[in-house]
Every structure is written in C-alpha cells, then in structure tokens.
Amino acid sequence: MGKPTLAVWKFTSCDGCQLTLLDCEDELLAIADAVQIKHFPEATRKDLPGPFDVSLVEGSISTPAEAERIKRIREETGTLVAIGACATSGGIQALRNFADLDEFQRIIYPHPEFLHSLEQVAPIAAHVDVDYELRGCPIDKRQLLGLLSALLKGRRPDLPKGAVCNECKQRGVNCLLVEGKEPCLGPITQAGCGAICPSYNRGCYGCFGPSDSAQPEALIPVLSRLGLADPDIVRMLRTYNAAAPKLAAAGDRLEGAHDDA
Amino acid sequence: MLFDHPLPEVIDRAGLDQLVKLLQADGYTVVGPTERDGALVLDELAGGADLPDGIGVETGAGHYRLRERADGAVFNHSAGPQSWKQFVHPPRQRVDAPEPVRRLAFIGVRPCDLAALAILDGVLGAAPYPDDRYLARRDQIFVVAVNCVEPGNTCFCASTGTGPAAEWGYDLVLTEQEGEGGHRFLLGTGSVAGEEILDRLTHRTATGGEIREARRAVDDAAGSMGRSMPETDLRGLLNRARGSEHWEQVANRCLACANCTMVCPTCFCTTVEDATDLEGDNAERWQRWDSCFDPDFSYIHGGAVRKSVGSRYRQWMSHKLSTWHDQFGTSGCVGCGRCIAWCPAGIDITAEAAALAEKERTR
C-alpha cells in the first residue's frame, strides 16, 4: 500500500496557514516521509492528480471560479480539513459582506468590470461538506501536527470546542477581564491557541472564532463595564472572523441599536 | 476546641521564613500565595520573602484587584484564581507513564480550601476506585492551614459550614495577629509531623490575651462574610428547581466559558486525550480538566445531552449543591467565592440560590 496522499489548497487567503505547515521545521521531514504531497503551492510546483486522502484547504470562497474549484476538490478528497479563519468563517476579507461591494470595486480598480466576485465571502463549509476545522489566524502548529498524526493513525483528532478561558485557567494565566486590565474575547473564542495573547497580558482578539457555545450577547455588558463604547465593541467583534454568524449577529444588533437612536 | 488543646505557640514573621526553610530542608517544595500578574496565585516559594506581605485583595462579582494593606499581614486575602486542586489534581497529567511524586508543603490553606481537599479526598481518593496518582500526591503533602480572620466580599464559608476556623486536616495551623505586640502567628499542631516541625521552630507559648484575641477574631470573621447561602435546604431546592424558568434567565448572562468550574476547588471532571507522533512509534495518553460547560462534555451517540447553556448552568449548580450529596455524601460547595469573583460576567451562585428560593416561596 502506498503512502497516504496529502494536498494543500489555497483559496482567497494570505498563505499564512500554509506557512504554518512549513514552519513545522523539526517535523517537516517526518511529514514528508509519512505522506505523499500531491499539491502544496507554497512548497512545490508539483501538481499531481487526485484522489487525495487528506486535503487541507486554506482561504475563503470569494469568486465563482473558487466555488467551482472547491467542489472538484471535495469530490476527489477523502478527509477535507478547512484551515484558518478564512476557510472557517470567511476571514478578514469577509468584512466586505458588511459593505457595498460595487462601491469598493469602483474605488480600487480602474476596470471593475473585469472582476468576478461572489456577493458574499463565505467559508468552505458554506459550499461543501467539511470534515474538520482548524481555527485561527494563523492556525496553531501543535493542532496541525496533532490533526495530521491523528488522521495518519485513523484517530479522531483532539480539537476542543470550549473557550480560551479553559486554557488560561489550565496554564495559570490570570483573567484580564476580572482584573480589569484588557478587553478580551477569550470567553467567547474557541480554545486551541494555548491562550497565547492573554499569557502576554494582551486580550484575546478572537482569531480562533466563536466557540461552539459562544454567547457574545453576554460578553457585551462585560466589555461595556470595562469602558468600551458600543462602536468599539462592534470593531472587536468584526475582525478575523467578522462573518461568523454569532459575531455578525451581535455586531449587527449593537449597530442597529445605534441606528435607531 | 481550636485554641484550647494543645495550647498554641507563637512565632513571629521571621519564624514564618524559618518554617519555609525547615520544610525545604526536609525535602518539601513549598507552595503558597505569592503575587503574580495582578493576583495572588499559588506557586512555589523560593523562601518566605515570596509571601505577599501587606498585600490585600478587593473582590466582587466578576471583580478582583490587589490593594496595599495598612498592615503587613501575609494571609489576610480571600481566594485568588487558583486553588490547591491544581497540585493534587493537575490541569494536565500523563496517565500512561509513572510520575515522580514531589513532596509538597502547602502554606496558607484556608478552612474553605481544607474542606475542598477533604471533598477531593472523598471523590478521587476513596474506595472502591481510588485514583492512585491522586493518593500518591496527597500522601506526601504537608499542610499549614490558616484560620480566616478577614473574609472577603465574595466569601460565604460560614453559611456552608466550612469555615472560618480550621478544625482538622492540617499539620500546622496559623492564626495571624497584627498590632500591639507585633506581627505574629499563633501556631497550633494537628499531627505528629506538625509537632516535630514546631519543636525545631523558634517559638514561645501564647499568652491568654493572645489566645482570647485569636478566638475573638475567628468568631468575628464568621459574622463578617461578604455573602451567604440562603438558609434553606439547598439540596431539596435545587432538586425541585429542575424545570424552573430561572435557568434561562441565568443563561442570558452566562458566557458558558467554564471559568467557574476551572477555579472551583472541588470541580474534578476530566477528559482524556491520546497523542501519537507522526511516525506512529510513540503514543501517550493525557488527562486534562474538563468542564460541564463544554459542549462535548455531555456528547454521546447522537449529540450532546445538554445543548443549552441554561441546562449546563443548572447541571453545574445542581451537582454542586444537591446531587453531590447523593453521589458523595456532602455538598460540593465550600463557600470560597472563587466562582463569583472569577466569573467574567459576575454570576453569583449565592444570588442564584436565593433567587430560586424566592421563586419557590412566592409561587
């Protein structure tokens, strides 16, 4: 039996999540030994045909061509893993979902008629079935290695669905919100990063996107008590995972409350 | 009773440093309260100087600040973000390999936390299926308790029957005194190991005045708790409240972030993760803290049993105050107040219990 095959795909994205795989310097040879890499634009010009046992898919679906391409990849892939904020929620480019696309295109491009964009930037899962998601901007190297190791051995990968707070408490990082130090999205953000930012006394800015049980509406009064005005809170909610439905809804409600006033 | 037999001895502030040194000389890693990143955390002490002299805390619902005290008191601060649980039941531990057991000495264990350790002993250490790793760690621990003479705003151990006096479960017990006569600690013993350490400490016998003062301070502490549990049969109340609409009201404020369960000194739930390397040559099995607020906690075939946040808060509070009795014969709450202070949303278990009692009374 041959080695399992791996493909890494790029859609609308900055390539940073692909680079996380290349950043696995100590493990890179082991990965290359364990799998046959058929497609990986950041690493090789090689472009071998499918099928692919595992596809890691980076980026959002932003154009009609991408919407077609992801369907073909899905058909040729056994286990499809969406990697990074773009692939799992639409990423930072999904901010255009909250604005007028035509206006943006007219301002920036001399010939907007050459552009073919979808009305809405969407995550991979909005177009095809996704088997696993690795969150983050960028993804976490340990989670990526854990996922690949698990898939190679046919195990279910360990991808906690709880909040970043679990990781702060487990590694002994004091709560920035309770100490009144920094606004923090940790209580509504999915764990997996190891609570990097809070461990440096920086509030979590939510790059892993909302946790499964995220309650942004319950966090808004907590942020207000720290002195944040509603527009500031909307800006906190609308960054790397702006189009994640729970964050978008909370931001829309806060904005709506001001429009009415 | 506490201050009568045997009569307490007295050490001064330097005696506390000496105590840390003696314990270290006996091979203990000494753990106690120390200041880090805006809170008093529990960590290894290099020496007695790492203890938080003159640092107090101001706590409230979802609120914790350090403050400078007018006196030099070392132990007059209510519970910080951590509990001793992290040392006897660590956040993450490998369970498929032997673990070298460290001899730990805990300094500054409050009565609420002594009660919590006793509860964990019953949960993790009891027959017929004791956790051998827990027992091995617990066996090696030397406990220096501290009677509580200055409860905080989120404290309610008087109403849970778990403080403010340390009754048992310690090797040594301190009662801190400031003011006339200098900064000193009345010291009582609770074990042979404690007596042996006392013999090597520079100490004198307590005066009658000091003993009366200590007794009065602990009595006063019972009357100055910032909060209290409602005086009702909580076990029955929570049992009857399963269908209450109140849970959805709490859910509107609850972040489902699991902080309450992480800081609780008795929450003990864990999950297991397997890890293999890429080559498949090595496999490891790790256990880590889990929380009933995590959606996967109640995951079984077909999905999670407790899908709503309200049902998860109900599960946590009902277990703590009611079904814990059915399962382990005691309440699971020791009144330390950590879940109140360290809930970012400031949800207060005593207020929720009072609200449930009030709703039942007026129905």
Overview of the structural elements:
The complex is a heterodimer of chains A (261) and B (363). Chain A has 261 residues and is of the alpha/beta class. Chain A has 2 domains: 5-152, 3-Layer(aba) Sandwich (Rossmann fold); 164-260, no CATH class. Chain A has helices at 16-22, 25-34, 64-76, 84-89, 101-108, 141-152, 164-170, 196-199, 216-225, 230-237, 245-260, and strands at 5-10, 36-39, 52-58, 77-83, 132-134. Chain A has a 5-stranded parallel β-sheet. In chain A, α3 (64-76) links the parallel β3 (52-58) and β4 (77-83). The longest helix of chain A is centred in the C-terminal third of the chain and has 16 residues, at 245-260. Chain B has 2 domains: 9-222, no CATH class; 234-362, no CATH class. In chain B, the strands form 4 sheets. Chain B has an 8-stranded mixed β-sheet with strand order 3-2-7-8-9-10-1-11, sandwiched between helices. Classes of the chains: A alpha/beta (261), B alpha+beta (363). Chains A and B meet through α2, α6, α7 and α9 of A and β5, α9, α10 and β12 of B.
Layout of secondary structure:
The complex is a heterodimer of chains A (261) and B (363).
Chain A (H helix, E strand, L loop, with lengths): L4 E6 L5 H7 L2 H10 L1 E4 L12 E7 L5 H13 E7 H6 L11 H8 L23 E3 L6 H12 L11 H7 L25 H4 L16 H10 L4 H8 L7 H16 L1
Parallel strand pairs in A: 1-2, 1-3, 3-4, 4-5
Chain B lengths: L8 E4 H13 L3 E8 L2 E6 L10 E6 L2 E6 L16 H4 L3 E3 L9 E6 L1 H14 L7 H8 L2 E5 L10 H4 L11 E6 L6 E6 L2 H9 L3 E2 L2 H15 L11 H7 L5 H8 L5 H5 L6 E7 L6 E7 L9 E2 L2 E2 L4 H20 L9 H4 L7 H14 L1
Parallel strand pairs in B: 2-7, 7-8, 8-9
Antiparallel strand pairs in B: 1-10, 1-11, 2-3, 4-5, 6-13, 9-10, 12-13, 14-15
Helix pairs in contact in B: 8-11, 9-11
